[in-house]
Design a protein that fits this description.
Helix content: over 70%
Strand content: under 5%
Shape: globular
Distance between the termini: 35 Å
Order of helices and strands: HHHHHHHHHHHHHHHH
Number of strands: 0
Length: 404
Amino acid sequence: MPRWLNRTVMGVGLASLLADAGYEMATAVLPGFVLAISLSAAPAVVGLMDGVADLLSNLAKLGSGWLGDRLGRRKPFVVAGYVITGVSYVLWALSAGWPLLVLGKVLAWFGKGVRGPLRNAILADAIEPQDRGKAFGIHRAADTVGAVIGPLCGAAALRWLQPFYPDAPDLPFRWVFALTLVPGLAAAAAFLILVRERPRTSLDPPQSFRAAIADLPQGYRRYLLGVGLFGIGDFSRSLLILAAAVLLTPTHGAVRAAEIAALLYAWHNTCQALAAYPVGWLGDAIGRRGILVAGYFLGAAVSAGLAIVIMTNTAGWPILAAIFLASGTYIAIEESLEAALTADLVPNAAIRGTAYGVLGVVNGAGDFAASALVGGLWLVRPELGFAASAALMLLGALVLWRWR
């Protein structure tokens, strides 16, 4: 076993696998649930809900990242974040409208925000710099294996439960949401038991939040410009699933379309899992920036392709499968290498949690803008939102390409 694949790396991976299994189980069936209970303005509200949740999550990342740096203890915050997320989707099982759906999403994403930068900082501290790409790639791969298991379990549960509730099509979805409690709490237990936080050996942390932000290197600040521009076009995957469900409904009916959309999302996450480690390894070998730029260009192509499919109404499942494959691949590149590049650009481990928090805020602001933009324009013409997304992602790719 390679030295970098230590207990902490494996513990972080297992916790992420379990957490994503629960989260993605709920995410995959949410669009079908929204259609089953006939909520109005679904695309716009799903986009806005995901955008608000992402924004609040990433604001939480900034605060938790700095607080963990200041206190010198990160693990308790991470465990608490996993617990909060693990119990949040039970609210969806009780929902009769948008309020509880929004509350459950916001709580879940707040938990993700609390744990995200501190988990990444613990992982970065546990390995040598030359192995960061591989370690973050393994983490993303494990995370995405959970994101494959979740939609598959969600789709299987829907198919098994639906015959029992012929007159209540929403009840199978509610049972799926309730089941997410199991992997969610198991993730918190895995992190608590397996992960070892390395004691602080660097100088004292900054005395104030402002000082921590001021200490971030200038090169890192320039890097965030390209990340932010790309993020403004990087819409929520819930909108991708919803687009597939809506496009497939005329041919397959609403329930079957929801099942196929969930399976396509499992395929998406399989592709993401398979790409994550090779991407990290390649980044260690030849440099991370060029591969991240290529991933950004691929993201722009995904949005443009989806706009064309909607505009031409050519939404057979093979075409959608190709779009979901490309989407999973670019997200593997984005999530593996953005985190590894952050550790490279911020060598001072005492403020690395803050740096990950700032990255989270930039991504969260972008997610909010992108999901609101795509969901809002959907009400005018669905293809307009995805075309705007493609243009913004292309701009972010160009800025990062020019950045040194």
